[in-house]
Amino acid sequence: MEHTFPQKVLEHLFSFIDSNKDRNAISLVSKSWYEIERRCRKKIFIGNCYAVSPTTVIKRFPELRSITLKGKPHFADFNLVPDGWGGYVHSWIEAMAVNIPLLEEIRLKRMVVTDESLELIAKSFKNFKVLVLISCEGFSTDGLETIASNCRNLEELNLQESDVDDLSGDWICYFPDSYTSLVSLNISCLNNEVNLSALEGLLGRCPNLQTLCLNHAVPLDQLPSLLSRCPQLVELGTGVYSTEEMRPEVLSSLITAFSGCKQLKSLSGFWNVLPSYLPAVYPICPRLTSLNLSYAIIQSSDIVKLIGQCPNLLRLWVLDYIEDVGLEAVAASCKDLQELRVFPSDPSCLEPNIALTERGLVSVSKGCPKLQSVLYFCRQMSNAALDAIAQNRPNLTRFRLCILEPHTPDYLTLQPLDSGFGAIVEHCKDLQRLSLSGLLTDRVFEHIGTHAKKLEMLSVAFAGDSDLGLHYVLSGCENLRKLEIRDCPFGDEALLVNAAKLETMRSLWMSSCSVSFGACKLLGQKMPRLNVEVIDESGPPDSRPDNCPVEKLYIYRSIAGPRLDMPGFVWTMKDDSSRRLELDVAGVEAQFRNL
Amino acid sequence: MSPAVVVTEEEGRSKLVSASSPSLDCFSQNGVVDLKERNYLGLSDCSSVDSCDSTLPSLCDEKKVNLNLKATELRLGLPGSQSPERDLDFYSTKLDEKPLFPLLPAKDGIQKTVVSGNKRGFADTVDGFSQGKFNGNTGINVMLSPRPVVAHPNTVKEMPSKVLQERPCAARGTTGHNHAGAASIAGSQPASKAQVVGWPPIRSFRKNSMATASKNNNDEVDGKPGPTALFVKVSMDGAPYLRKVDLRTYTTYQELSSALEKMFSCFTLGEQLLF
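Output (structure tokens, whole complex):
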């Protein structure tokens, strides 16, 4: 079979196959297919930068043009991972600078990027085109200067939600006059004002510009002149959307500017909205497919007026100011809606201060037949509502519900929300991502283990009663890749019995649970292809008895062995004496089976 | 970075252990007693039994001194100056009696001493604490996620109850507004309570953006939200790691300061174990 097609033909065939999953599958067919595939692979996605070493990647894929790397665990977004944990990209850049000088694209998420790294990128890759840094940190506008000065073919610079040391807004002046290739620029995370005239010049000379996301420091009265330089924009993130006082001439120039943007499909930004300026976007609303109002503090009536003109919305992000009544309006007018995210305006306030309840979500689930992806923060929920949502929308693939107060029961029956979430996993057979909240017992995990067969990522907080909960998930969810747990009474047994499962997953995070240090050691020693890392800021865990629970635990599969850049508060459970522990493990397993 | 210089006080005397820092002399002579120094590096021993007697100041209380400070002090003496005696008993007993790293304040409160040479002592910046406010300040749980209540041999008995208080209605299933400390922190927001780290799961970028935005949009909306979180990174000289702090959980500088002290006190571990 292998000799049916010559190598060149196979290569040509493979070039049509883009998805990482398919490429990985191809490489497993046979040795010769593995060899052919690896030599022509252009793009690679590495979901955990510590799972493999840069050298290994480069050796296997010498013709890479695009790399995507993710660093810190997802819970780092919520300050659960201490600073200094890791995720440094520099060693990757160094290795690629030497071996893959034709690299064109680097996409990073939750990694530490230094100015030094940026400089190395700028000077090493002559054809560099795409730099995407999502939720990254560790660099300053100085680093951006080197990128701007050196990357003559840069097409995309995206700093979404990164923590940038904003030293000066003049970095943008470093794009030379001869530079015209910009396609996408996202600087919404920057705190300070960028040099506006340099920005204007940049926009004016880049005819292929499609995406522009400004930061809140860009004044609204500058927006029209910026827009006039790039009327071909497809995606716009405004700066601040107000002026100290309403100025009619600003409104009219905005209207003119927006009317000129015939391709505009996506709007975001809207920091600090003065509602009187909202009508300026009405002309483009009918074309909008994506609207992000999640930073806009405006009343429900204004939101509804705006959304009422956007019948083609596919994606809506909004604050809970929209209220149930606003979501009913969405359900009525946005029939193509695929993704809804409702964020809390005041997460710390316990009293329901906003008329947004489970009813809003139920109406959208009923009215929007294409709804697939939900992120919803609210203060009350009921099993009946969850059941309705599940039956209305079995096509859900991502369902993340955050009831703000932990352990909140069904507000109607005061029961746990087990059956409600159970309905979700039972009806939504293609569910890939699920986040739980509210009062939950082990039963919900039994439901999940039984039904959620396509589930890939599960986030759990303040839930469950015992190890059984964790065991249900680890033993039942066949496609589980990422599991993150905080503040649940899960301990050693479920983890140890399901140790082999962990090698089939990308990672497991457990914090404020009841996993003992002894169990971590056991796991680390028994499973050579897992890195078991204990995070404990109160001191070395072996200064306490083995049965003490660890603060935080991060387990991930890796072929690179324990990492070498761990800070003082991270301990790896790697030991050479694995044999004597096999007896211990067998004993625990036997005990558990007798439960 | 100027090295920390330790002032140890024994039996009412101030003994300056430093080659040169005239400013310290001024401190010790000009009524240091009115000021309260804070030692963020934890050169004072936070788990010594003796120091626990010194509750929040009674300001002239030079006698209530942490004698064990000597064991961990940094010295800037000339060669041949007196070296501190290591109190070995201290190290062996503390493990039994006290948590190694009480990240929450023990009932005693803040430990005294240590003024760094060129830097303004913390005491310069505050007037002094009221004991009640500090002790009731259980609402601050900035860097710890609430732990399940598990018996630790090393844990002080106060710990579990404090942990319970800080967990958001852990086993209760109801909204627990039972944090006296939290009320003082929340100030104008009696309905808010001690914030759990990382909950609700909202990115700092969004939290900070909302904080800025709500400041500017004060009169716009019904059901005006209260202050949302505002995270800043805090870096302390000598401490190996940065910390993130939510400024909104503190209403006064004193609260912030004591929280920072607790946060960074765990870095004394390295020094204690080295000896």
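The longest strand of chain A covers residues 373-378.
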